[in-house]
Specification:
About 35% of the residues lie in helices and about 20% in strands. It is α/β, with parallel strands linked by helices.
C-alpha cells in the first residue's frame, strides 16, 4: 500500500461515531478502543480488553440479541486477522443491523508494530465477501467513511464490512475504564437491563 494520503485513525472513528444516535459500538483490542474513547466515552461503548479476535463475535451476539439497534464493531487489522472465522458465522447468520469497520494500518500495533498480513496477501474485503457479507468494501477516503457511517443506521441492509486504510502514526492513548463489570453493567443499564 502507498503510505501517502492514508486516513487519520482518530478522524475516521470520530466520523463513524459523529451522529451515532442509538448505535452500540464495540471496540476491538487496543488502539481502536482508545480511538472510540477519544471520540467520546458513551454508555453504549463496549470496550474489549484481553480478547484478541473476539470483537466481531461480540458484535454478532449483540446484534442478534438487539435486532432493533445498530451495532458497530470498530477494530484493527491484527485483531480481525485473529478472528477471521467470525466473518463466516456472520455471513451465515446475516444480522441486518451489524456493521464492522476495520482500521487497517497493516501492522500489529499492540505487539510492537510488526507488519501484518494485510500488507501483502490477506484481503479482508475479499474474505468478508467470500464468507457471505455482500456489502464489503475497501475505504480510502473520508467521504466513503461518512457514507459507511450513515449506512450503519440502516437496520435492513446489513451485515456490512469496511476495511479502512489508515496511517500508522503513533497517537496518544486515551484509555477508558478497564473494569469489565462496570463496562458490562453500564451498557446493560443503558439498554434497559438489570446489572449482573
Amino acid at each position: 500500500m502507498s503510505k501517502a494520503n492514508l486516513l487519520d485513525r482518530r478522524q475516521v472513528v470520530s466520523a463513524l461515531l459523529a451522529d451515532r444516535e442509538d448505535v452500540v459500538a464495540i471496540g476491538g483490542l487496543g488502539a481502536s478502543t482508545n480511538d472510540i474513547t477519544a471520540a467520546g466515552d458513551h454508555a453504549r461503548n463496549f470496550y474489549l480488553w484481553g480478547g484478541m479476535g473476539g470483537a466481531a463475535m461480540i458484535g454478532l451476539g449483540l446484534a442478534l440479541a438487539q435486532p432493533k439497534l445498530p451495532v458497530l464493531v470498530i477494530t484493527g487489522d491484527g485483531e480481525m486477522l485473529m478472528g477471521m472465522g467470525s466473518l463466516a458465522t456472520i455471513g451465515l447468520q446475516k444480522p441486518s443491523n451489524l456493521s464492522i469497520a476495520v482500521l487497517d494500518n497493516e501492522a500489529y500495533g499492540e505487539t510492537g508494530g510488526q507488519t501484518s498480513h494485510t500488507s501483502a496477501a490477506a484481503d479482508l474485503v475479499g474474505v468478508a465477501r467470500a464468507c457471505g457479507i455482500a456489502d464489503s468494501r475497501a475505504i480510502s477516503t473520508m467521504g466513503e467513511v461518512e457514507a459507511f457511517a450513515k449506512a450503519v443506521h440502516d437496520l435492513s441492509a446489513g451485515p456490512r464490512f469496511a476495511n479502512v486504510k489508515i496511517d500508522s502514526a503513533s497517537v496518544d492513548r486515551i484509555l477508558p475504564s478497564r473494569d469489565g463489570t462496570y463496562i458490562v453493567n453500564r451498557i446493560r443499564g443503558d439498554l434497559g437491563f438489570q446489572p449482573i
